[in-house]
């Protein structure tokens, strides 16, 4: 007898497991049992697994009977005429959804030509095994799986036309490509997903060659004139918001230009862009530190006396200003109310981004790289026809990564550009490489995609033939303008007195354990000491008790917590974090005794 499990729970026994499974599947196809049910006979464990639980991934397949698919030309015609729908095909048992378990006992044919009497199912399209963004990668079947995943992920980070109403939206941290294009090499998913409504890349001329070593390690060399013509140019938008909050006791924030007697008043220069209502005007150029919404708040802590005299207590400055390392132009200003009926001011800041050294670009095949050099057009290599590449891509990125689709797209893009048509590069069903090569030859070019190129600097013919063509390249959201960060002195944390963390807070650059080891290995002891004294503090230490002392301002001398003024006090330079650690030990009743020896 074979055990039956429903959703992982034991429910009964059956004599003939294969016949039972067959009958359940037939009943499901006839609509007698729920379409959501999946069943699988595990021969090794001699058990039947039935699943109706939520959260299973199921995929549709065409049912095959005796080597013939149940989906016929007649059905396809009815689908085109909208006489049949997807749900009709499911209810008639022509198509069924299988989960991972039931798929184990299915024998799926890739195409109709592969069908044999043993097959149980047929793929609707081989493309159906891929997700939406992965099926946007052209010629994905020529790619290594890891790179196909990377290409899929990279497309999600590309800049493009994200929403048609971007001009009136207040989205956090978004980018907009100025001149997005539809790819020359498309897949069927580009048409299905209406990609032309929200494209996210540009067709560029790409040459695969080395350029003085500047494009090694995945970097790319880019043509300066292409950038001047608007290639890869984008705008970066971010909002700033201020609202008049209400506090207990009838106190309220006020959006206005702060008076000079306000606690924390900045300077007249910082408030210079504000209009009479304390809000900046559209199209104003702003940089780090400029106030864009002037605001004052009631004092944070009211002492017992001040509570009865609210008028005299000075308000504090709480304006919204441009953060460290940011700049831009005010795009528009909205004045409205929030749910509580308080005044709400929203400002949108715009910043034009022209590609620069360090900006990240990628093809749709996981071949990402940053700009390492921007070369004047006069120094770029050129072909016999005078074609100058926009991007020079390193040939060393191909052999180990095996992204053959990257190379095929170059030939396909070149053919499409010369024949002025879109190329179908759908995974498993794309136009064949042989046809593209033949078409390229008809256009008067070498069929293998290479051309004779000349050095732009010397004018000499390059010895090797250069592989060059058109390719859809994407600019990613990782721009050096958002990441550039340096600091000398700056703000510190209240607790540890060490530098703050992160670029937004103007933080320090951390020198970790491994970086420390490099200084130790070099014997650079003074540099090591200098890097590790960001929180140095001089503390008085009592030599008798070994505890930290203090300075008595009344007696004008250092004191020991135990021996008072009798103790011998020495000033010692330690890290403030260590002093904090000693305090923590004292607080749990541990006596941290500091033993001092002579420095020399």
Molecular shape: extended
Number of strands: 34
Distance between the termini: 88 Å
Q: Using only CA atoms, what is the Rg?
A: 35 Å
CATH class of the largest domain: Mainly Beta
Low-confidence stretches: none
Task: State the domain count.
Answer: 4
Task: Describe the protein.
This protein is α+β, with helices and mostly antiparallel strands. It folds into four domains: 2-124, no CATH class; 140-166 and 175-233 and 357-475, Beta Barrel (Dna-directed Rna Polymerase Ii 140kd Polypeptide, Chain: B, Domain 6), CATH 2.40.270; 236-353, RNA polymerase II, Rpb2 subunit, wall domain (OB fold (Dihydrolipoamide Acetyltransferase, E2P)), CATH 2.40.50.150; 536-587, RNA polymerase alpha subunit dimerisation domain (DCoH-like, Alpha-Beta Complex). Helices cover 19% and strands 26% of the residues. The chain has 13 helices and 34 strands. The strands form ten sheets. It has a six-stranded mixed beta barrel. Strands 5, 6, 7, 8 and 9 form a five-stranded mixed β-sheet that branches. A five-stranded antiparallel β-sheet has the order 10-14-22-21-16, with no helix packed on it. The N and C termini lie far apart (88 Å).
